[in-house]
Amino acid sequence: xxxxxxxxxxxxxxxxxxxxxNCTYSNSAFQYFMWYRQYSRKGPELLMYTYSSGNKEDGRxxxxxxxxxxxxxxxxxxxxxxxxxxxxxxxxxxxxxxxTFGRGTSLIVHP
Amino acid sequence: EAGVVQSxxxxxxxxxxxxxxxxxxxxxxxxLYWYLQNLGQGPELLIRYENEEAVDDSQLPKDRFSAERLxxxxxxxxxxxxxxxxxxxxxxxxxxxxxxxxxxxxxxGSRLTVL
Lengths: 111, 115
Prior knowledge:
The complex is a heterodimer of chains A (111) and B (115). Chain A is mostly beta strands and 111 residues long. Chain A is 0% helix and 57% strand. In chain A, a hairpin with a 4-residue loop joins strand 7 and strand 8. The termini of chain A are far apart. Chain B is an all-beta fold. Chain B contains no helices and eleven strands. Chains A and B meet through strand 5 and strand 9 of A and strand 5, strand 9 and strand 10 of B.
């Protein structure tokens, strides 16, 4: 079993839908949680960063961490075709700068 | 400001041939990473440099892979000889030591196809 599990999808939604992307993890030492977005044939770029449990909002994006359940989520409101990409969750331990990545979920937002 | 630059973007070689990838990190970033990304998978760390020093290379297959970062700036990753299973995207990333988020800035990757 991998340390970080993520459903690869693809997840196909209509424009304007609310999208929910999720990851589970097994290592209780993870303290920092991130979401990276990767467009086709591009490198990943950091989208959201959170520390410990709770919610963080940035525009249409909300990151949620539930450490008791070892479960993190990314919500996208009013999804747009430009949101079509692969979303990678990543997490790291305190004192480490090396994140462990999930396999990514492919999101397709169709007009 | 220029991002992380990688070359070549695409490379097709026959098995048993050598191949090299080059990376120029963001100016001032002292930490450099090489990641391997297979199709449909997340990036997996191969090696991490702090300045010139390789501080984490436990996942680098040392029988055929080698890397160097001379002068603590540019880096090269070499595979010799390449095998069919090495077909993947090789991502270079850099980060600024001490940054609170530890954000990694990735290049666009070098896509290797081994025939």
